[in-house]
């Protein structure tokens, strides 16, 4: 297993979506009786890469970078950090701008402001409302290119990111994991790891929230808002997955209807992203503790 800690400064909130256990009852083309897991080294998630990200991308053999940020966010952050280097570095690194929202700021700070009325009543409802908007806007334009990359024959490693690698990135990763048969509680557990991954970025988020137009917040107030609206609660992801089931019938139906993928492409994603889990020292391959 590759140690990702050396790449965290260049690729904040970096995680490999591999080595995640798949529910034993999930459908799979594999005839093996061995437990299954997601394939390591194929799909990575992160916050926006820094200008020093290219060596890390190369070290991880990443060939495609999918940027979910809006034009507003990219302009505010000084442009796509690694875009020029990605286009010329050997081996070639292709950057794909696949914005969920073309001109809407959807950073965690912006979501905190947009849905702040939920904070005192029902924080989870606020996240579900925000995530419904992402799911509705992002299907064919933003999520489909990522899914089709994973569905092609022998896909190369790719990175998916937004600004913080939390909300938009968290949703597309949850969709991929669900398509592969990872159970909802494990998906929610993985989503919750973002709190630790974003800890180094929190001071900058607080400053951004304090500086937001029309907002009168001191540092304590900004921290309080972010603590309720920024935290990656597993319950928020569980509620979002439930909302997908209620609105579309299942994650698979969402991908069919909103992302316009075929059932064959979804089967191909499962085949590409599913492998046998190696035996552990005690002969068990249990999922992470939730």
Structural overview:
Pfam families: Y_phosphatase3. GO terms for molecular function: phosphoprotein phosphatase activity. Residues 24-33 have a biased composition (Low complexity). Residues 141-177 form the Tyrosine specific protein phosphatases domain. InterPro entries: Prot-tyrosine_phosphatase-like (IPR029021), Tyr/Ser_Pase_IphP-type (IPR026893), Tyr_Pase_AS (IPR016130), Tyr_Pase_dom (IPR000387). With 290 residues, this protein is α/β, with parallel strands linked by helices. The chain has 13 helices and 7 strands. The strands form 2 sheets. A 5-stranded mixed β-sheet has the order 1-3-6-4-5. It has a two-stranded antiparallel sheet with strand order 2-7. The longest helix is centred in the middle third of the chain and has 29 residues, at 123-151. The chain starts with 14 loop residues before the first strand and ends in a 14-residue tail after the last strand.
Structural class: alpha/beta
Q: What are the segments in which pLDDT stays under 50 over at least 5 consecutive residues?
A: 281-287
Mean pLDDT: 83
- Could you state the order of secondary-structure elements as H and E? EEEHEHHEHHEHHHHHHHHE
Please describe the biggest sheet, giving its number of strands, its sense, and whether it closes into a barrel: 5 strands, mixed
What proportion of the residues is helical, as a percent range? 40-55%
Alpha-carbon distance between the termini? Answer: 22 Å
Strand order in the largest sheet: 1-3-6-4-5
- Total strands: the figure is 7
Task: Please tell me what the overall shape is.
Answer: globular
Radius of gyration from the alpha-carbon trace, in angstroms = 18 Å
Helical element count? 13
DSSP strand content: 5-15%
């Amino acid at each position: 297993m590759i140690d990702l800690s050396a790449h965290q400064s260049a690729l904040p909130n970096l995680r490999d979506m591999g080595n995640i256990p798949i529910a034993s009852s999930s459908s799979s083309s594999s005839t093996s009786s061995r437990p299954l897991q997601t394939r390591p080294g194929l799909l990575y998630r992160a916050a926006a890469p820094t200008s020093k990200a290219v060596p890390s991308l190369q070290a991880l053999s990443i060939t495609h970078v999918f940027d979910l940020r809006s034009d507003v966010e990219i302009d505010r952050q000084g442009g796509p950090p690694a875009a020029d280097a990605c286009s010329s570095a050997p081996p070639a690194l292709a950057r794909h701008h696949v914005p969920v929202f073309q001109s809407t700021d959807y950073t965690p700070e912006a979501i905190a402001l947009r849905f702040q009325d939920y904070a005192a009543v029902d924080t989870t409802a606020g996240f579900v409302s925000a995530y419904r908007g992402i799911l509705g806007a992002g299907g064919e334009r933003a999520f489909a290119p990522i899914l089709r990359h994973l569905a092609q024959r022998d896909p190369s490693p790719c990175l998916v990111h937004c600004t913080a690698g939390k909300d938009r990135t968290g949703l597309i990763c949850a969709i991929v994991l669900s398509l592969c048969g990872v159970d909802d509680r494990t998906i929610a557990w993985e989503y919750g790891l973002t709190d630790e991954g974003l800890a180094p970025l929190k001071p900058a988020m607080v400053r951004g929230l304090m500086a937001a137009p029309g907002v009168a917040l001191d540092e304590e107030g900004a921290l309080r808002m972010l603590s309720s609206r920024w935290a990656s609660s597993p319950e928020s992801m569980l509620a979002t997955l439930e909302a997908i089931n209620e609105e579309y019938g299942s994650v698979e139906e969402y991908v069919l209807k909103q992302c316009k993928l075929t059932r064959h492409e979804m089967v191909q994603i499962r085949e590409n992203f599913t492998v046998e889990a190696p035996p552990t020292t005690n002969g068990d391959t249990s999922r992470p503790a939730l």
